[in-house]
Amino acid sequence: MANLKNEIERRRTFAIISHPDAGKTTLTEKFLLYGGAIASAGMVKGKKSMKHAVSDWMEIEKQRGISVTSSVLQFEYDGYCVNILDTPGHQDFSEDTYRTLMAADSAVMVIDASKGVEKQTIKLFKVCMMRDIPVFTFINKMDREARDPYELMAEIENVLGIETYPVNWPIGSGKRFKGVYERDRNRVLSFVYNGIGHAADEQVTDIDDPALEELLGDELYQTLMDDRELLDGAGGEFDLERVRSGKLSPVFFGSALTNFGVQPFLENFLKMTTPPLPRRCTQGEVDPFDEDFSAFVFKIQANMNKAHRDRIAFMRICSGRFEKSQEVFHVQGGRKAKLSQPQQMMAQDREIVEEAYAGDIIGVFDPGVFSIGDTVCAGAKKVQFEGIPTFAPEHFRLVRQKDTMKRKQFIKGTSQIAQEGAIQIFQELGGGMEEVIVGVVGTLQFEVLEYRLKNEYGVDVIMESLPYSYIRWIVNEEIDVKALDLTSDTRRVQDLHGNPLLLFTSEWNISWALEHNKGLELQEFSRT
Ligand code: G4P
Predict the structure, then answer these.
(1) Residue nearest to ligand 1 atom 28, measured at CA
(2) Which residues form the domain of 120?
(3) In this predicted model, what pLDDT tens digit does every residue of 273-301 receive, in sequence order?
(4) Does the predicted TM-score (pTM) go above 0.85?
(5) What is the position in ligand 1's atom list of the atom closest to the CA of 27?
(6) Is the same domain home to 319 and 439?
(7) Residues 470-517: pLDDT tens digits?
(8) What are the φ and ψ backbone dihedral angles of 2, each rounded to 5 degrees?
(9) What is the arrangement of strands in the sheet containing 163-166, beginning at the earlier edge strand?
(10) Given the CA of residue 258, which atom of ligand 1 is nearest to it?
(11) Ligand 1 near 140 CB (within 6 A)
């Protein structure tokens, strides 16, 4: 049996974030290419996943298996066992991104060199900062006319508010993109394009090598010499500790499409980022090297295989080794559970896993017992990882089925999709599920709900917009919610667990409620 310590130490688990079209999919594909997990690029389908609109999402739905396999990928590279987590690019799914980042130890941020920091980059970056995870920047598409690299760095610092350190520096851009200068090793890597599906040929030239001037041409050579001076003079020290605590972002330049700079980035990144780190739990911290297996659920996906109506719970292993058929304790359920059909994703294939280690992501068949944030563990100690907070929904709609005969399917569909965390559902106080109030963070989630109810559960729905934008759970246990003095446009509802809460149309109404109901305590997040 493999050595636990070695296996965990060589794990690297990270998420890739970017504004749609910056090149996240292409870069992921190139990592797999260099890792030997795919023979040539262009094989990972479902490229347009979660891009601009629901139509892309639907398209990917048709190829469900593919979209999901591309959401967690594992491959070997240079002795490392790499786990990549894909994140949806659209801002309406930032809650999904947040959960995915909970399972990652670091993030790679892809930026389009001609566009710089875009709207969605900002949103996703903020989500990374909520967890203080290290962020590595890859400035992509240098084979196109790019913006000035100094300007790009300044933009990252000013707009995102993180210090940057260029690990390498581009030599030219567009048709004249020759390669990168590696600052720590004082050498130039120049690349020769070999077609999309093949690794680029790389030539290494020492900075003092007289051949360099000829290789780069007068102008680029002179610019590089000036840039070197400027960069060294500009100060900024490289400090690995600050990188690892999310305070400093190492920056790399390259072109994922032409494979320029992908390999140096991957190599540096794998060295700089950490192996799995201890995780906080209610009892303190769990050491990844602890012999006892523990994991938490960060994503649930129903109907991945429509024919089987299956539901998969994705877990991030936090400590120890997982073995197939192992019996574990499901902490929130308070009972033992078998993790059946444990699977791992390898490029396009789903494989049954025999064993997995801290840092790895496994998907297990979920008979409907798991919720997002749940802990499973083995061994004598019962640990419980800190839960994953839900974002407060900002958009609400009243949803009901068109055909009253489809009530059962409607209830099942909305409940299951809510358990996945794709939407939040509420109902009238003490009311049934004839109609539900659906709350989401981004309105695209409504369209996905409508589409999924129709396609997976055969239910057509009618949706009606509601004017609420603020949600507050009622903290007071002993309170008569119906008797509260509220403005007429405030609504009393309850969540899936029967917890009472209020929906408000404005912040002013929240203050009003607090002023007129002495002792009333409200909070933005639910108790469960
Ligand atoms: P995303 O996952 O971040 O949304 O981006 P994706 O990789 O799908 O890339 C978006 C577009 O940018 C694709 O072109 C892709 O080929 C292109 N691209 C990615 N990296 C580079 C690069 O380094 N240089 C250049 N020049 N282009 C790059 P597309 O036209 O949308 O798709 P396709 O026609 O290539 O399939």
Answers:
(1) 257
(2) 2-272
(3) 999 999 989 889 999 999 999 999 998 87
(4) no
(5) 7
(6) no
(7) 999 999 988 999 999 999 999 999 988 888 999 999 999 999 999 999
(8) -60, 155
(9) 72-77, 80-86, 11-18, 106-112, 135-140, 248-253, 163-166
(10) 23
(11) yes
